[in-house]
Structures are given as structure tokens and as C-alpha cells.
Write a structure and sequence with these properties.
elongated; hypothetical protein PF0899 fold; binds zinc ion; single chain; alpha+beta; 3-stranded antiparallel beta sheet
Length: 125
């Protein structure tokens, strides 16, 4: 299952970031997913609930944010939002473009709790 292996890798990275920051706990994991990632947010949440308790993220909450698809025009370098998967530059009309965001699952940020800290603090990876 695609989502399960993705979550397994998200959990590994989250734990590595938490330990690098001396955190005792991870409170929230913020993920962003793009429309081209081929990932179902609900399946992602299910996989997280199943895998997180055994990974050391006992009480972490998963927050999934869907990102817009963004492309960069190869002709004029303009970055634009792609709607309905139509890659047409709004400035020059070129259809030759690179995807710059929206094709991946990414850890946007983690909310960590440090041992001496009762208040959760945010840390960008
Ligand atoms: Zn262009």
C-alpha cells in the first residue's frame, strides 16, 4: 500500500527531526500533498493512525494540507497555478512547463514538545 510506505517514511523523518531538536514528543505532523502525488488524504490518515502508535509518535496528530499544483513556464520562467491540469502559461501561452509544486508529499512542519517545555513549539524542518 502506497500510503502506508509513505507514512512509514514520514514517521521516520519526523522522529529524526524531533531527536535532532531534543524534543520529547511530537504533537502535530503537518503534511502537504499535491494533486499529482496520487495520494488519498483519507488513506494517509488511516495509515497514520495505524502506524503512529508503534513508531514512538504516541499522541501525534496528523494535519494534511492539500497544495495547489504550480508550474514554471520554460519559455518565460513565470510560475503559475495549474487549473484542471491545463499547462498553459497565462503570460506567453506556452505549454512547455515544469512542475515546481504539487507532485509530492512533504513534511511542512512539526509541532514538537521539549522535555522542559509545557507549551508546544513549532519548528520548521
Ligand atoms: Zn510563459
Amino acid at each position: 500500500m502506497h500510503e502506508a510506505s509513505l507514512i512509514a517514511s514520514v514517521l521516520r523523518q519526523s522522529l529524526a527531526i524531533a531527536s535532532a531538536n531534543g524534543a520529547s514528543d511530537i504533537v502535530e505532523v503537518h503534511l502537504s500533498i499535491g494533486p499529482l502525488s496520487g495520494v488519498e488524504p483519507t488513506l494517509l490518515a488511516t495509515a497514520f493512525e495505524r502506524l503512529a502508535p508503534g513508531s514512538g509518535l504516541r499522541a501525534a496528530t496528523l494535519c494534511v494540507q492539500e497544495r495547489e499544483l504550480t508550474a514554471a513556464c520554460r519559455a518565460c520562467q513565470l510560475e503559475y497555478r495549474v487549473r484542471d491540469f491545463e499547462f498553459t502559461c497565462p503570460t506567453c501561452g506556452s505549454t512547455d512547463a515544469d512542475i515546481v509544486a504539487g507532485d509530492a508529499v512533504m513534511i511542512e512542519s512539526l509541532t514538537l514538545r521539549s522535555p522542559s517545555d509545557a507549551v508546544p513549539t513549532s519548528s520548521n524542518s
